[in-house]
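Operator note (shift B, R.M.): manual run for Branched-chain amino acid ABC transporter permease requested after the automated queue skipped it. Running by hand, logging everything below so the morning shift can see what happened. Input copied straight from the record, untouched. If output looks odd, do not overwrite the archive copy; leave it for review.
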Amino acid sequence: MGATGDIIFSGLFQGSLYAIMAVGLALIWTTIGVFNFAHGALMMIGAYATWSAVDYLGLPLPLGLFLGVAASGLIGWGLQVSLIRPFIGRDDIVLMVVIMTLSAASFFENGALELWGPRPKQLPPLVEGTVNLPGLIVSAHQLAIILISPFILAAIWYLLHKTRFGLQLRAVAQNEEASQLVGLNLKALYGIAFALSAGLAALAGIFLGGFKFMSPVMGSDPLLKAMVVVIFGGVATISGPILAAFIIGFIEAASSYYFGLYWTPAILFLVLITTLMIRPEGLLSTPTRRLS
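Run finished. Output pasted below as returned.
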């Protein structure tokens, strides 16, 4: 398969990580209508917390992964309670949340630098070794992520579409005032949405930490790519960013192979700008904010 196989495999791997990150971002947008710029820092916290559990405490990776996701989810919930909730209902909530989440991201990154130090760290892979595919030798860790990601995304879809919690979250996304009138606890739903989003970010960080070295700013680049994915696919849906994640992943993989890493960000932004000029609401979205 040669170059084509490398591009397809790399696109699937990157698309899987971007999809998990982007679904978390889209979940916050569809629920509260804001972007969480601390999403990348929450990704980093999940990866570092897992590393601490595995390296310091000697826990097995699955248990460390669970603790990392839980720690990030708890911090995400705290972030919503302390920095987002006070501004809900205000006309300037978007601007205030941008400032608050950017500040929180800086605080988390510098806190991680103080707590864990600048030395790069790496998590053990989910699966050791390599796998021989027809015409291609690939990392077993990357292949495992490609195979696991659809189940994670399917579980999120099931949660949002087939459970009472998902129904309540979708109701809040469509009409907050009507949701309050029927007795839904908006504060609790917002908190759970943030915790779930942070948990997804942590999961992406843990997957990435088994493939690349970790640093306190490891979430900055994935956050930027996830935002491109969400805007490209449509901020008002969950399904749009999933499709967009794999399109962006394949574009990035092909661009890196043929034009080099330095040109890849410029090409991605060119795709994004072109999409916004032709279809401002994204590929699969409508101009309204809803959860679908």
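Quick read of the result: Residues 40 and 222 are 7 Å apart (CA to CA). The chain has eleven helices and two strands.
Leaving this for review. - R.M.
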